[in-house]
Amino acid sequence: MSEPASISTGIADRYATAIFELSKDAKTLGKLEDNLTDLSAALDDSADLRDLIASPVFSRDEQQSAITAVADKMGLVPDLKNGLALMAAKRRLFVLPHLVRQLRDMIAEDKGEITADVTSAVKITAAQSKALAETLKKAVGKNVKINATVDESLIGGLVVKVGSKMIDTSIRSRLDSLQNAMKEVG
What is the pTM of this model? Predict the structure, then answer.
């Protein structure tokens, strides 16, 4: 991991731990989880929000008032809203994507779940997602939440990442292996 990435992760870790513990004490983890989904979608959809958290052009006060307004509009739980305001005051909003990821992991761990990142060539159906989650549950012994994405360059098959394990059954991977084997022969 690069040094700036590890610094960002360390900063996000501390804020995530505080927000998680406060939400757990207040028994609002379910609402926090919903808020994280909304916040993640907002980060993906809004270039303005990404600029707000990353740009040094905005002052601390501007960042703080803007993120507080966003939090109010989204109906974020008080612990998350206050955490974001504090992050803005300390010029730490740039770690927001790491914070969201870390909080999701902490909530999943608390619920006895693990997240599997699944990349497929075409969008997987709800039935396929459920079947895959059941299969993975048998393998890892925990409830599995599927985080599905589409990458058409895979041509077909799946790439599944669960924790530190990766299973690549994509056609692209098989073609790459075949190409490498042919290079070794010739």
Answer: 0.72
